[in-house]
Amino acid sequence: MQVTDIRPILSALTRNRAGAILVALQIAITLAIIVNAIYLTQQRVSKVGRPSGIDDQNIFSFTVEGFEKDFDFVNMVREDMALLRQMPGVIDAAPIHQVPLSGSGSSSGYYSLPDKKGKDSPAAYYRTDEHGVTALGTKLSEGTTFDPSTVEWKAKEEQGQPPSAIVSAGFAEALFPGEKNLVGKNFYDAQSKPIRIVGVIEHMHGSWVGWDKVDRLMLIPRVSEYTRYIVRTQPGELDRVMKETESALRKRDPNRVVGKLQKMSDDRQRSYSGDMMLAFTLTVVTGLVVIFSSLGIFGLATFNVNNRTRQIGTRRAVGARKIDIVQYFLAENWVVTTIGVLLGCGLALAAGYWLSTQYQLPRLDLYYLVGGVLGLWALGQLAAWQPALRAAKVSPAMATRNI
Amino acid sequence: MFPYYLRLALASFRRNPGLTALMVFAIALGISVCMITLTSYRAAAHNPAGERGKILFAASIDSWDPDEPYDDENKALAPTLLTYNDAKALYASNIPDRKVMMYKGGGILSRGDKGMEPEYVSTRMTNADFFPMFDVPFLYGGPWDAKADAGPDPVMILSKETNQKAFGGENSVGRTVRWQDREFRVIGVLDEWTPAPKYFDVSNGSFNDNEGAYVPVAWGPILEMGSHGNTNCWKTESINSFQDFMNSECVWLADWFEIRSAEKQRAFREFLDSYVTEQKARGRFPRPLNNYLYDVDGWLERNKVVDDDNKAMLLLAFAFLAVCLVNTVGLLLAKFLNAAPTAGVRRALGASRMDIFWQHLTESGIVALAGGIVGGLLGWIGVWAMRAWYARFLDNPLNFIPFDAMNFVIVVAIAVLAGIVAGLYPAWRIGRAAPASYLKVQ
């Protein structure tokens, strides 16, 4: 485009200042919204979709509590487990005192050296037995599950840590960065008690999906009061096994309370529901805002074309080609879009900065801004295309007519 | 003049039904998104205690780790829960008009005569003052008294839902139930009661259901029952018995106080400071003096009941509404300028600029009202869909996303106001147009 083309465009724009300013303003707000919204959505979507390292689609959990004065807790769990593990469709079952992805859990701080020295990291911990690893469907990258003889069975909850643990790779990496062959290594609790690593879980998420250290956790070989049960089934067998479980357990011993059976996939969805809702709302709003902006641009271009049929006819009569007319309107639109986009960059950065300080959201990535600017330029040209073509169809004879 | 302007507006709508529909639709979509986000925002920002929220206080004192603050982001904040000994010491103060010390417990509830399926019920361990302080409604019977607190007497208050399960909903006052392997006498049954957010205890989720039963808190040590909600510890201590646990630095209880006069509130703040200073002399409370007495609003803010996502979504919704409105201003301007010759004729026949201005403002007001109502209804559908989605895995989406008629009124008011603001410029512009130029061309 020649530089001289811009001047008539600018002078024409000043005639319908209000319309052009409105569209530019609309484009500016649109850019601020979509850039930030797409950035946030993208982050939430990847958070929701990330793998937990657990076979979470095929697991359910529940509580079992005795209420008679002298019920035998250890025996109850052992017999329930024997029953559950032999049910058809069940891969494995285990007692575990908290359920990963559920939002409730326990955690504590640990150290790579005694006396609170060396590296330190918090980790969620799960009291379970030697079946915990298979019942969760996690993969060990190193070592083995617990030796059954090391699992501590206690009727009452006790303080202190058993002397061995299966740790997640994320937790191991925090304590021993870069090290391999972790099996046999010791780490320490706050009382400097050594805990030996017997296995490393390749990847697993703990209880709190909003925690930035969600992949730092360990399984510890202890089963004590107030445990939950988790059951992992063959794919497709979850509903059937769930239906049969409650009655099977009741039949074995009616004198206890079997809590509500909870699918882990539901726990997972509940834990991520806020993220999913935000991502969904942002996507819908982004879509709508793009549609409205296109309508605005289209509206302005149409209005301008209608108002200037005589002028267009005159230009055509004095020799302008159709392509010149199309170019003229596209260029005019480009000027308006550019003003809006420039304004919008400032607005988008301000909004992004404000969001990042006020709400601890991450700072806006500039690639998104560049993408948004290019996208809106394209959108502007596309929306003005039809009115520009219509303008080109104005006959040169219009120059001689009254409207 | 107003009815005449209305007639003119309707005639104008009939001239460009598509454009009018587009404007109504633009406002409606903007408003519906606002209504949906406003609903969850207002539900979270709601203070269920109302006016009484100003005289109810939660105490928070910094008993935490000398090396690490309780809250990394704001180091001056104290834990939201109290240790057993601190909770007891603050509760002992005579300054407040009413006071409670409480935590969330639970146990298997059954009937000696096997009249119900035994079931786990979460149980609030609390004091007699809890019921008048938090305006708890009773269906049958009433709260226990201070004597039952001191005993403690084996008395229990059931929620309406628990009473339904245990006694089929009949008046169960005077009956006995088994709980934690002991006999408890039912002395009251609550009516429907779901303050949302659950402001007196937000530690396990701000919109969680209330407990199914209420028992004097003094039963806690006797039954050796720890918290079934949250327990947070920082200190390396050897805990071998429940007694050790009660004497530990673990926090798991909450104290609330009703303090009506400003003078007493000041006195109680001083009491908090002097208590902590005195404990410091004994080697406890290693951190700076971070004592807080939160009223209900302050407490909800401290606990971030309105979370960052809520605020971000509300901001986004209003930015979207702004786009819709700018769009509407553009459309109105185009529409009015299109009809400028008509306005020119009216001006030539003697209508003043103000007349033209009001006529067009009426027109935009009607568009906005229609957009607001349609948007409100769309928003209602959206809220309904959102609840249906949450209902798949939440027990009480109604607490979380209520149907609140007030929200509808608010958004329609916003729409009308916004529509009038949007109409101001186009109406002024058309009113300013010189009649002669239009008459000439025609």
Architecture overview:
The complex is a heterodimer of chains A (403) and B (442). Chain A is of the alpha+beta class. In chain A, 50% of the residues lie in helices and 19% in strands. Chain A has helices spanning 6-15, 17-49, 73-85, 132-136, 169-175, 238-252, 264-307, 309-317, 322-358, 366-392, and strands at residues 59-66, 90-96, 106-113, 117-128, 140-143, 152-153, 164-168, 186-188, 194-201, 217-223, 228-233, 256-258, 262-263. In chain A, strands 3, 4, 5, 6, 7, 8, 9 and 10 form an eight-stranded mixed sheet that branches. The radius of gyration of chain A is 33 Å and the shape is elongated. Chain B is α+β, with helices and mostly antiparallel strands. In chain B, a hairpin with an 8-residue loop joins strand 2 (98-110) and strand 3. In chain B, helix 1 crosses helix 13. Classes of the chains: A alpha+beta (403), B alpha+beta (442). Chains A and B meet through helix 2, helix 7 and helix 9 of A and helix 2, helix 11 and helix 13 of B.
Low-confidence spans of chain A: none
Span between termini of chain B: 27 Å
| Number of separate strands of chain A | 13
Strand and helix order of chain A: HHEHEEEHEEEHEEEEHEEHHHH
Largest sheet of chain A: 8 strands, mixed
Number of strands of chain B: 10
Strand content of chain A: 15-25%
Name the chain pair whose interface involves the most residues. Answer: A-B, 51 and 49 residues
Structural class of chain B: alpha+beta
Task: Summarize model confidence as the mean pLDDT of chain B.
Answer: 88
In short:
The complex is a heterodimer of chains A (403) and B (442). Chain A is built from 10 helices and 13 strands. With 403 residues, chain A is of the alpha+beta class.
Describe this protein with a few key phrases.
heterodimer; A: 403 residues; alpha+beta; 5-stranded antiparallel sheet; 13 strands; 50% helix; elongated; B: 442 residues; 6-stranded mixed barrel; 10 strands
